[in-house]
Amino acid sequence: MNEKALRILEYPKIIERLVECAASPMGKHLCEQLMPSTDLNQIQTWQSETADALSRLYKFGNLSFSGLIDLTPAFKRLAIGASLSAGELLSIAKLLSIAKTAKQYARTDDDGDSNDSLSYLFDNLASLTPLMLEIQRCILAEDEISDEASKTLKDIRRQIKQTNIKLHNQLTSIVSSQNNKNMLQDAIITMRNGRYCIPIKQEYRGSFPGMIHDQSQSGSTLFIEPMAVVNLNNELKELAGKEETEIERILAGLSEQVAYEKEQLEENLDILTSLDFIFARATLAKSYNGTEPIFNEDKRINIKQGRHPLLDPKKVVPINIYLGKDFSMLIVTGPNTGGKTVSLKTIGLFTLMGQAGLHIPALSNSELAVFDNVYADIGDEQSIEQNLSTFSSHMTNIISILENATENSFVLLDELCGGTDPMEGAALAIAILSNLHGKQVTTMATTHYSELKSFALSTVGIENACCEFDLATLSPTYRLMIGLPGKSNAFAISQKLGLEPYIIEDAKSQIDASARDFEEMLAELETRKIAIEKEQEEIYKKAEQAEELRRSLEQKEVELKQKRQEILTNARQQARDILTEAKETADEAIRKYNGWSKHTSQNNTKKMEAERSKLRGKMGELDKQLAYKSTTKTKKRHKPEDFKIGDSVFVTTLNLKGTVTSLPNAKGDLYVQMGILKSVVNIKNLELLEPEKPKQNNQTSGYKANFMKSATISPEINLLGKTVDEAIMELDKYLDDAYLSKLTQVTIIHGKGTGALRSAVQNYLKKQKHIKSFRSGVFGEGEAGVTIVEF
Predict the structure, then answer these.
(1) In what order do the strands lie in the sheet with 475-482?
(2) Which end of the chain is more exposed for a tag (fewer CB within 10 A), N or C?
(3) Is 446 annotated to bind ligand?
(4) Continuous segment of H or E residues that includes residue 695
């Protein structure tokens, strides 16, 4: 790729930002070496890797490569059988720790199926956790080996500790002795040449037995090793040697283990370096909200809302640029500082970034073409050393571009042939562009020459473009408008700034009439195009609002359905709970009444009345809890004379149907039979029902009811932990529901225990007419702990 174009389009600045995103020295080196490719397959592979890494960043957060260093020298030493240092072994352990973290990161996908372009890299990582743990167990730091590294090292260090204690005790007694007080220069213990000594005055050297190891600069103090501790010092020295030997043996053993896994470790290092490089590209893309461009080999470019990555994202104005489909050359005109050069650099830099596998800061589905080279002539290239003017410098570069550009090249020219006579410059510019257009070179150029506008209008395959200028504020909007040549705003700007009108009119008279008409036509075209774009933008916004409203309504409909289903489910559950409680209460009352009726007495009669009062009280509480409030219709009020014995009624407080069994009393209370439950209900809580008409398709409706019930009835019932009475009551209700649900077989779980519950259940089953047979479970069904019932 053309190095001058890379520098002019500021590609090295993008690479500098990319390097900052990498963590390891090897990853940073790969970033520094990254150059645009001309191979479509290679580009698409890079783009896929960047996109998949970016997706993982958004889903699972960052993957850390901190601590990853180049271990190639260590691997070379292992290859010749050398031992590694503690620091190198710790770096190996860090490599394995990062590999383990990376594999765990790859498994974070909840779906468990994240087969993207990075999966093969994560899958090929070798965790080697035992080796990592062994190194971490033996080595605590670069200069510290753990006592637990080996039993021998632990014993040696224990001996060193014990010897040190003996030695210090002996020296302390010597220093503390009153006999030696006058001979000591200081009452301290010091070390010289690796041996413990005591500072003795020079005049007592003959009186203090021991070995002299050093003396002070003045010579007044001698550092003497007392004879009493010479053996202990010798022993300590010997133990230190043994400790060093054992540490070398431990490091050699660990190095041998590492050497055995050398190939996998080298592969881990290569994979993690590649991942660091790939995730650096993804991190860079995330920093400017980049997207993956779609590449083609048809020289087609379509950038949607592109933003120059080196400009402040809060200030930069997004631009839309397209060429290569209907035209291969774009000529941009407009005022200075209007955004022409930024547009030129943006499309050039996007091409380089995309072909290097980097995402671009634009909307998704933006398109880029694969070019074999990018050439650019942008900015002031004046060279004092070579005695070249601005025009000469630009022309030298343009000549080089004309010589090297091919039909697969992309050429960017800023202020073509500027800095010279306008007439000659315009003619030269047209000739250069004609040459490039004739060779079918994709080109984008900026100019001030009005002659180039006419050239673009009259030549097939060349299109005009301009940078919009707001006359109200006398400032550019930086929006690129393709299909419309830029017009001169000199007269309008001068008038806004206060130049006398007669001077402006005089200036207009100096311009050829055809040129003046052409400028007026451009102004009208620009006004119309701006109006059309605003209308299109308004239509697009309304379409977006309509789509958003549609999605909102669909979401609300789903939520309403879910809420309705939830309310119905809760209501059914509450009704089931109420019916269950009512049945249990009724069964208990009947059992008590049956017991009392066998022994008629005044006391039993009182008990029966008390029980009836208790039931009425309970029904009253239920009435309060389930007070029926109609919000959709006004309930019809009935009179006492409306009710007759045998009428079908709906009890609103219980949400149950029943039959009137007595006439209302003075308070409006009457008896209603609801299945096995008979209760006193006030007429204000009753609604008269119309007599039921014969149904034509009873079989179908019954099937539907049974189907709905069977959907909620379990094929087994668990009676574990219940008393016999509780179990039989619950079993009675369950068997009724199961039978009505058309279940053919159910399982009763009663456990083995003492066998009392099993016997009670089976005795109860013998009395039920709707049960065909029952048996104890076999192996695999629960054996004697369950009973299998067939209806």
Answers:
(1) 373-377, 409-413, 442-447, 329-333, 462-470, 475-482
(2) C
(3) no
(4) none
The three-class DSSP label of residue 110 is coil
DSSP letters of 141-178? ETTEE-GGG-HHHHHHHHHHHHHHHHHHHHHHHHHH-G
Kindly report, residue by residue over 327-346, the tens digit of the pLDDT.
999 999 876 666 788 889 99
CA distance 651 to 674: 9
444: Cβ–Cβ under 8 A, 6 or more apart, which residues?
A: 323, 329, 330, 332, 344, 347, 411, 412, 413
634 labeled binding residue = no
CA distance 136 to 594: 80
Structure tokens at 480: 């690129």
Residue 607 known to bind ligand: no
| Residue 357 marked as a ligand binder | no
Residue 336, marked binder: yes
What burial letters (b/e) apply to 269-297, b meaning 16+ CB within 10 Å?
A: bebbbbbbbbbbbbbbbbebebbbbebee
340 is in an annotated binding site: yes
Tell me the C-alpha distance between 5 and 381, whole Å: 13
339 is in an annotated binding site: yes
Which tokens is 250 given? 């431990």
pLDDT at 203: 83
Burial class (CB in 10 A: 0-12, 13-18, 19+), 251: buried
191 has which bridge partners? Answer: 196
Residue among 443, 410, 373, 398 nearest 1 (CA): 373
Q: What gap in Å lies between CA 646 and CA 688, rounded to an integer?
A: 11
Q: Which of 422, 383, 415, 386 is nearest to 398 (CA)?
A: 415
If we measure between CA atoms, which residue out of 69, 41, 96, 38 comes closest to residue 276? 69
What is the C-alpha separation between 747 and 497, in angstroms, rounded?
97
CB 338 within 8 A of CB 469: yes
Q: How far apart are CA 381 and CA 654, in angstroms?
A: 94
- Can you tell me whether residue 387 is helix, strand or coil? coil
pLDDT in tens, 710-726: 456 778 888 888 888 88
341 is in an annotated binding site: yes
Question: Of 700, 701, 663, whose CA–CA distance to 683 is shortest?
Answer: 663
How far is 76 from 89, CA to CA, in rounded Å? 14
Separation of alpha carbons 454 and 50, rounded Å: 44
**Cα distances (angstroms) measured from residue 119 to each of 23, 44, 105, 149, 311:** 21, 17, 11, 37, 35
Strand 367-369 and strand 442-447: the pairing is unpaired
> Contact 156/87 with Cβ under 8 angstroms?
no
Strand order in the sheet with 210-215: 190-192, 195-201, 221-226, 210-215
Inter-residue contact 465 to 480 (CB < 8 Å):
yes
